[in-house]
UniProtKB/TrEMBL annotation:
SUPFAM superfamilies: Putative cyclase. Pfam families: Cyclase (PF04199). This is Cyclase family protein. Gene3D superfamilies: Putative cyclase. Transmembrane segments: none annotated. It comes from Candidatus Enterococcus murrayae. The lineage of its organism: Bacteria, Bacillati, Bacillota, Bacilli, Lactobacillales.
Length: 246
């Protein structure tokens, strides 16, 4: 009986490799869209009464770090349980745009940003996951949505052209970002969720509200995304990790 996979697992668990948690902890302070309720938790069984602990949680499917399958926007699109296992473990490419979003919090990721990455690191590989680092996940509380004096949120996102480039000129499987939405907040004032709708219509999935992308190299890591196998679900809170060789 071959134990090559066990040997490989021993290798990637060795000190030569770094494991990074890319998901926010799930609790009452977890960042989430203002239109969604905060997590509610109640104790169903307690040690004192039942000698065992069990809790009941109530949360929206898009809470904190979460996956959006196509059905989140596309009627008849693939649901959470239809994301294949092989799609959940992918080569990870990290595009660092922290400098640009520091100067412009409404920044929209461009095709030039993506091709500049490729000029430095090579073309995005087939069936990869492209994540954009903005360090937005370091923001806390209200600052995560950066509302102005009128209450309008401000945060960066993807341009439609950049998403079309990855979907039509490259063969990616998924994208990810640290911000609450695919589109910049101000872009939603013009055409709500235009980029997100387009991406999910291409049968891709995305992970929103990632964190700790600053701990990763631009290329060479793999990402593994896990979530409950909920039938017909339009999304769910996700636990994602990245592994790379130091």
């Amino acid at each position: 009986m071959s134990n090559n996979l066990w040997k490989l697992l021993d290798t990637i668990k060795s000190p030569t490799y770094q494991w990074v948690d890319l998901s926010h902890p799930v609790n009452e302070k977890t960042p989430h869209y203002a239109g969604y309720n905060t997590l509610e938790m109640s104790e169903v069984f307690t040690y004192d009464e039942h000698t065992v602990c069990a809790s009941e949680y109530k949360l929206v499917s898009q809470y904190g770090t979460h996956i959006d399958p196509p059905s989140h926007f596309v009627e008849g699109g693939r649901t959470l349980d239809q994301i294949t296992l092989k799609e959940t473990v992918l080569p990870l490419c990290v595009v660092d745009l922290t400098a640009k979003v520091t100067n412009d919090i409404d920044y929209a990721i461009t095709v030039d940003d993506l091709t500049a990455w490729e000029e430095k690191y090579g073309q995005f590989p087939d069936d990869c996951f492209v994540a954009v680092r903005t360090d937005w996940s370091k923001r806390q509380g209200e600052d995560f949505f950066a509302p102005d004096e009128t209450g309008q949120p401000h945060y960066p996102g993807w341009s439609l052209e950049a998403l079309k480039f990855l979907s039509e000129e490259r063969t990616i499987t998924a994208i990810g970002h640290e911000t609450p939405d695919t589109d910049p907040a101000v872009a939603n004032l013009v055409v709500p969720w235009q980029g997100e709708r387009y991406l999910l219509e291409q049968d891709k999935y995305q992970i929103e509200m990632l964190c700790n992308l600053d701990q990763l190299p631009a290329t060479g890591a793999i990402i593994a995304c896990s979530f409950p196998n909920v039938s017909n679900a339009p999304g769910y809170t996700a636990r994602c990790i990245a592994i790379y060789q130091k």
